[in-house]
């Protein structure tokens, strides 16, 4: 590259990978005729350099698009769906349109990274990444190119801004609620960090808070008892087998509903047999029909603040990075009771 902070070009990638410019173009486009090993080498060079091919680069660099790229891990889930709506509303209010890519919850990390490449190639002026799984190291190359904000999850890297619900405060708030209700032996259903950074963070906060207040904590790892929220019978069986457990804390409302359904199949009820808590507090899971005690995330606030953060970067109104933790609130329902 020609100087400090210079935008990497296709020539830089070709030099790093030891191939021609045309091979780089074909490899990044997934064209036929490029050896897999060569494609891997070219993509690795592009990631290392922070290079993203621009679909409209020829002769258009001086024109503004007023377009933001938004990647959401799974728009079919209420959490991501509500956030996406908030992004679109605030972007419109700030004079921008939104181009969205979503993985429907089934994308691999590599596919999520490629989705970001696709968004940037469309000449978006800013990028919002909303994924509980994509590592920050895979986001940073894009943040070096254009203004980028991570939304909906805590991020502490000084190179990138983030706006999120206070996962620690939420986990602790729910734990305090159960202890205050007299629960002394509590099971916490956890999700591995590689599957969801946010759900791991909140359940870790639950465990730490319960222990600090003298409760007996039983950790139930989802990877050992079932990773599908629709089939949590093994989790309920494990809770019953433990004996003496008066409450189970789930990593999200979706998981809480899965627990309640598994309890129903076994003739059990919450809170009669044991209390159940969720997390997120968004519709439709927040409906009175379910009555789940949960921690409500202020997704409209998170969404609007994320758009403001990236637009302020684009317009030069902000200097440096920010990490904004937005407080949620306890929502009490019929799924918990005093002991």
Order of helices and strands: HHHEHEHEHEEHEHEHHEHEEHEE
The rounded distance between the terminal residues' Cα atoms is 66 Å
SSE-based structural type: alpha/beta
CA-atom Rg in angstroms: 23 Å
Structure in words:
This protein is of the alpha/beta class. The protein has three domains: 10-53, lambda repressor-like DNA-binding domains (434 Repressor (Amino-terminal Domain), Orthogonal Bundle); 67-166 and 298-327, Response regulator (Rossmann fold), CATH 3.40.50.2300; 167-297, Response regulator (Rossmann fold). Helix content is 42%, strand content 16%. The chain is built from twelve helices and twelve strands. It has a six-stranded parallel sheet, with helices on both faces. α1 (10-17) packs across α2 (21-29), α1 packs across α3 (36-49) and α2 packs across α3. The longest helix is centred in the first third of the chain and has 16 residues, at 78-93. It starts with 9 loop residues before the first helix and ends in an 8-residue tail after the last strand. 43% of the residues are buried.
Summarize the structure.
With 339 residues, the chain is an alpha/beta fold.
């Amino acid at each position: 590259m020609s100087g400090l902070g210079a935008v990497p070009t296709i020539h830089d990638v070709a030099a790093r990978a030891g191939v021609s410019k045309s091979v780089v173009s074909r490899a990044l486009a997934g064209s036929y005729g490029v050896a897999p090993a060569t494609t891997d080498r070219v993509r690795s060079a592009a990631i290392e350099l922070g290079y993203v091919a621009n679909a409209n680069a020829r002769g258009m660099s001086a024109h503004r698009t007023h377009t933001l790229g938004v990647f959401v891990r799974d728009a079919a889930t209420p959490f991501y769906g509500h956030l996406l709506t908030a992004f679109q509303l605030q972007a419109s209010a700030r004079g921008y349109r939104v181009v969205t890519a979503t993985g429907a919850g089934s994308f691999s990390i590599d596919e999520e990274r490629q989705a970001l490449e696709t968004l940037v190639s469309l000449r978006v002026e800013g990028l919002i990444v909303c994924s509980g799984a994509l590592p920050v190291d895979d986001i940073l190359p894009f943040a070096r190119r254009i203004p980028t904000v991570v939304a909906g999850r805590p991020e502490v890297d000084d190179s990138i801004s983030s706006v999120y619900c206070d996962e620690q405060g939420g986990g602790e708030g729910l734990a305090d609620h159960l202890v205050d209700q007299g629960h002394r032996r509590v099971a916490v259903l956890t999700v591995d960090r590689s599957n969801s950074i946010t759900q791991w963070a909140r359940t870790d906060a639950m465990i730490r808070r319960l222990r600090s207040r003298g409760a007996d904590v039983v950790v139930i790892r989802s990877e050992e008892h079932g990773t599908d929220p629709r089939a949590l019978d093994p989790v309920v069986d494990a809770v019953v087998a433990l004996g003496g457990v008066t409450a189970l804390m789930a990593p999200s409302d979706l998981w809480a509903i899965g627990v309640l359904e598994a309890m129903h199949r076994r003739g059990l009820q919450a809170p009669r047999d044991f209390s159940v808590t969720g997390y997120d507090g968004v519709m439709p899971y927040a409906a009175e029909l379910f009555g789940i005690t949960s921690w409500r995330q202020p997704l409209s606030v998170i969404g609007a603040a994320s758009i403001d953060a990236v637009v302020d970067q684009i317009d030069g109104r902000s200097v440096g990075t920010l990490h904004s933790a937005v407080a949620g609130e306890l929502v009490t329902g019929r799924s918990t009771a005093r002991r």
